[in-house]
């Protein structure tokens, strides 16, 4: 039932690996009959590299195949779906030798045969690791095509509406539990690029767009953007609202207002999700992000800092550097995570501006009222809100 699923898996299987495999079993039984092992994408890559099929506890939790209460694979879910236990790969630690490069893989990659593979992680846990987000209260964010906020907690908690997802973080141990709580907004950088490509025909740079938007006031003089135009949003309980601009006044709104409303709307949507994260025990003090994508926009970063009241630390790093540090840690080249992140430097810090916070929060309150009205008009009405 729902309660058992949520208390033990901390998530609904939804459209994750477990549910996808169940769909294959029910709808493509001939294909399912050929399954030897199920794997996440990272497991498959590691298998191609090493010739050995393995997984990690963190990976299984991302597939909604981990029993958080029993601290083991979710046998009850496997039994419910009728998955044979033999389909489960051997579990390896996240930071440890997980196999060695085969001769064929080494030749393809230009590396030495028998090079050990010593780390793997999903994209968002790895992004958090690349930013040295390992301890409770630390937050990582990305703002590319979609936007993700990923916070670390020491509490195994869940959102009853599955608006955010809880996984085992890469730094999790039985002695010092670490859980990653993930919130995603699909319509982030894709909205900004849509404006540039469709409205401006690609003739204006993103930096110029930021400069143009700065000419509009906080709140875009009443013009609001709801950036939910890239598919159903989990944070809205899998509703697909579409993206809209509302409150447009032809006599006073121009290009600066459109761009500012879009960027503010993206941040407002992220903040809506952050409030859900706070409800499940993720504290918010400092946000860490790579100096890239939407975080290159001063307007975007300022809006997020002022709404959350948190400082934003930007780093010149990325997931590839994080994976390299993880491999070094798993190999034993680095003895501790502190040593692994020696040299990671803050490039820029954005602090909240106390003078502007009230204006941003007023604008968000108006936006939230509009979102609440939109949700109430959806089939099934208003089920939840970030403030409930």
- The span between the termini is 24 Å
Domain count: 2
Overall pLDDT confidence:
95
The fourth-level CATH homologous superfamily of the largest domain is ATPase, nucleotide binding domain
Q: Please write the string of helix (H) and strand (E) elements.
A: HHHHEHEEHEHHEEEEHHEEHEHEHHEH
Rg (C-alpha, Å) = 22 Å
State the shape.
Answer: globular
Question: Main beta sheet, described?
Answer: 7 strands, mixed
Q: pLDDT below 50 for ≥5 consecutive residues: which ranges?
A: none
> Quaternary state, please?
single chain
Judged by helices, strands and strand pairing, the structural class is alpha/beta
Keywords:
388 residues, alpha/beta, Nucleotidyltransferase, domain 5, 2 domains, seven-stranded mixed β-sheet, 15 helices, 13 strands, 40% helix, globular
Describe the fold and architecture.
The chain is an alpha/beta fold. The protein has 2 domains: 120 residues, Nucleotidyltransferase, domain 5 (2-Layer Sandwich); 266 residues, Nucleotidyltransferase, domain 5 (2-Layer Sandwich), CATH 3.30.420.40. The chain contains 15 helices and 13 strands. The strands form 4 sheets. The chain has a 7-stranded mixed sheet with strand order 7-8-6-5-11-12-13, sandwiched between helices. It has a two-stranded parallel sheet with strand order 1-4. A two-stranded antiparallel ribbon has the order 2-3. A hairpin with a 4-residue loop joins β2 and β3. The model has no long low-confidence stretch (mean pLDDT 95).
């Amino acid at each position: 039932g729902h309660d058992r699923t949520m208390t033990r898996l901390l998530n609904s299987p939804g459209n994750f690996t477990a549910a996808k495999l169940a769909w294959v079993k029910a709808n493509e039984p001939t294909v399912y009959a050929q399954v030897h092992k199920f794997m996440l994408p990272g497991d498959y890559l590691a298998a191609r590299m090493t010739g050995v099929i393995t997984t990690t506890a963190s990976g299984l939790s991302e597939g909604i195949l981990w029993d958080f209460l029993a601290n083991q694979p979710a046998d009850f879910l496997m039994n419910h779906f009728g998955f044979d236990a033999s389909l489960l790969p051997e579990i390896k630690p996240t930071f440890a030798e997980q196999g060695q490069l085969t001769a064929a893989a080494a030749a393809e990659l230009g590396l030495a045969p028998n090079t050990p593979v010593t780390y793997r992680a999903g994209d968002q846990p790895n992004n958090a690791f690349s930013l040295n987000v390992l301890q409770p209260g630390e937050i990582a964010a990305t703002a590319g095509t979609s936007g993700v906020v990923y916070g670390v907690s020491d509490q195994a908690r869940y959102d009853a509406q599955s608006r955010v997802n809880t996984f085992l973080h890469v730094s999790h141990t039985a002695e010092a539990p670490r859980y990653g709580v993930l919130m995603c907004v699909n319509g982030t950088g894709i909205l900004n690029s849509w404006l540039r490509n469709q409205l401006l025909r690609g003739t204006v740079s993103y930096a110029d767009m930021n400069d143009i938007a700065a000419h509009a006031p906080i709140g875009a003089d009443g013009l609001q953007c709801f950036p939910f135009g890239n598919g159903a949003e989990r944070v809205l309980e899998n509703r697909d609202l579409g993206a809209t601009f509302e409150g447009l006044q032809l006599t006073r709104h121009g290009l600066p207002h459109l761009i500012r409303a879009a960027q503010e709307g993206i941040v407002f949507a992220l903040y809506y999700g952050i409030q859900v994260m706070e409800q499940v025990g993720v504290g918010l003090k400092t946000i860490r992000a790579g100096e890239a994508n939407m975080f290159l926009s001063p307007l975007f970063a300022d809006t997020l800092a002022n709404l959350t009241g948190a400082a934003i630390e930007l780093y010149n790093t990325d997931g590839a550097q994080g994976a390299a540090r993880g491999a070094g840690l798993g190999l034993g080249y680095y003895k501790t995570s502190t040593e692994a992140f020696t040299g990671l430097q803050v490039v820029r810090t954005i602090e909240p501006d106390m003078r502007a916070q009230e204006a941003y929060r007023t604008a968000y309150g108006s936006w939230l009222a509009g979102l609440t009205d939109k949700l109430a008009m959806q089939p099934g009405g208003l089920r939840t809100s970030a403030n409930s």
